[in-house]
Amino acid sequence: MYNKIISYIIFTKLTKYMSSKSHTDEVFREKKVLKNPIKFKLQLNEEQKQAKEQILNNTLTVLAGSAGSGKTLLACQVALDGLFRKQYEKVIITRPTVSKEDIGFLPGDLREKMDPWVQPIYQNMFLLYDKVKIEKFIEEGKIEIVPVSFMRGRTFVDSMVIVDEAQNVTHEQMEMITTRIGLRSKMVICGDDHQVDLKSKRESGFRFLYAAARKVKNMVSITLKQNHRDPIVEELIGIYEDAVERGIMSGSSGTSGRNKK
Questions:
Q1: Per residue in 121-148, pLDDT tens?
Q2: CATH class of the domain whose range is 46-245
Q3: 120-124, long-range: CB within 8 Å, 24+ apart, which pairs?
């Protein structure tokens, strides 16, 4: 009888203690997940909304489109949306610098070396959301810049990976990048094969990956066709593409799904 009384007292005190810690102990604290839509400064159009749905339903997305089609903006919106909702712990951004990825000669630390190349991505994020909040994410490491050559050997878990200007990523680099995807992660590869800056257009791994989506489960290729810049941009692109076809100038005709006029 005495042992039962002692056991009851211990149980009662333990229960009371656990109850008092339920709101403060990290073990019992649930993550606060935002349920309402994030109030972005810019809204996606219908084409981008449909593309976003496909991105969310797949692990790897190859996102093609001409200059001004909003590829990077869409990728940034999906990444920030997931970061705010705690669907990802981190957003990884990579972008080719030069064909050989040699940035060691540049002054500064890694972030300072990559800054000129990632400014377009930062600007898209600033267009979407408060600049101070985005910069805080960067300082906290929740938005991380990783040069292509630094990705080897890493596995990105609980992350959204954005590969921008992917038409300038070689076949070997593309294989290395895409095989970094870890559990509960997504990757969006943005590119325009009309803007290949590599010495040889055949070195680009973007077209190959775009076509490979037909054969890989949980992978999709999307082409954005609506222009978000001044209408003159679309006209200029058409003129330059026509010049390439007629042999007036060298360039890449592109095969990533963009329709010609």
A1: 889 999 999 999 999 999 999 999 888 8
A2: alpha beta
A3: 120/72, 120/164, 121/72, 121/76, 121/93, 121/95, 121/162, 121/164, 124/72, 124/73, 124/76
